[in-house]
UniProtKB/TrEMBL annotation:
Organism: Roseobacter litoralis (strain ATCC 49566 / DSM 6996 / JCM 21268 / NBRC 15278 / OCh 149)
InterPro entries, A to Z: Fatty_acid_hydroxylase (IPR006694), Sterol_Desaturase_Related (IPR050307)
Fatty acid hydroxylase domain: residues covered: 178-308
Protein name, entry field: Fatty acid hydroxylase domain-containing protein
Record keywords, A-Z: Membrane, Transmembrane, Transmembrane helix
A GO cellular component annotation in the UniProt record: membrane
Domain of life: Bacteria
Transmembrane segments: 39-63, 83-102, 135-157, 172-192
One MF term in the entry's GO annotations: iron ion binding
Amino acid sequence: MPSDPENREAGRWNFRPQVPLAQNPLFQWPPKPAAIFRWYAAFWLEVSTTTLCLVFALIAYFLVLPDLAEMQVLAWGWVAKVWLANLIPQVICAGTLHYWLIMRKGQGDKTKYDPRDQARSNGTFTFGNQVHDNMFWHIASGITLWTAAQVLVFWAMANGYAPAMLFPGNPLWFIAFFVLIPIWSSFHFYWIHRALHWPPLYKLAHSLHHRNVNVGPWSGISMHPVEHLLFYTNFLIHFVVPSHPLHVLFHGYVQSTHPVFSHSGFEEIVVNDKRQAKAGVFFHQLHHRYFECNYGTVEMPWDRWFGSYHDGSAQATGDTRARKKQMYT
């Protein structure tokens, strides 16, 4: 039977997955090859946000993105195409999830983490409305600065300032880099996120994202422009590592579309009482509830190594609150 503290911790949530939460077995000792295979198979051999990001990247590359030769000169025409290639999938994903989960309440509160609804008539948010606030910052700042980062990389590739790898020059690296991009993204996110919790940066920028204690699909990249500038320094890797334009597109969707799902507020998408897909990430939901924990992602064990890991248990909540009290006194 769960202890009283565990019962109280579970009672804070409408839905709490099994705890302690698992992390990537790649970084556990002794090695467990079967567990590692299952972990990565869930990302690459099933319908997942990762495979969805790859599909979006393929569509954008073959149907929208111009040749590198055209991108040697900055022009509103092709820049607008990149912006639309980013906007449309975001609106489809965030809009569909928001409609099903929040407007229609298509699955009620099944697998919903936080029992509360999205905030209305709340002066904390721009326009006094959580959803409108999130949509504005997500699109006006997020998609615009995401596009600007990619445009810079494409222009640099086209002009020889960034190393471009054109398929099939190195097919093994071409494939491997798709696997490494989410790992790099996790590594970069942890350190940028820790920096954003430095009080001056938090007050200036990151506090806007943390208005969302109870997150929703549009919360994903709803951030202050300063945070977006830091968040999208992730693309600087393409100035060092030889990349294909398809990698840059995939990188953008991993960086920006995955958060739509991880901030959905629901563990799973349920239709007709059947699980259809994984959606939210309780690991990050804990960060929005308790703030000073889980700065990274489950892909890399930085939080476990640096003492900020919340595994969903009552003990971890107590440790996080004690650490937060020590940090701010």
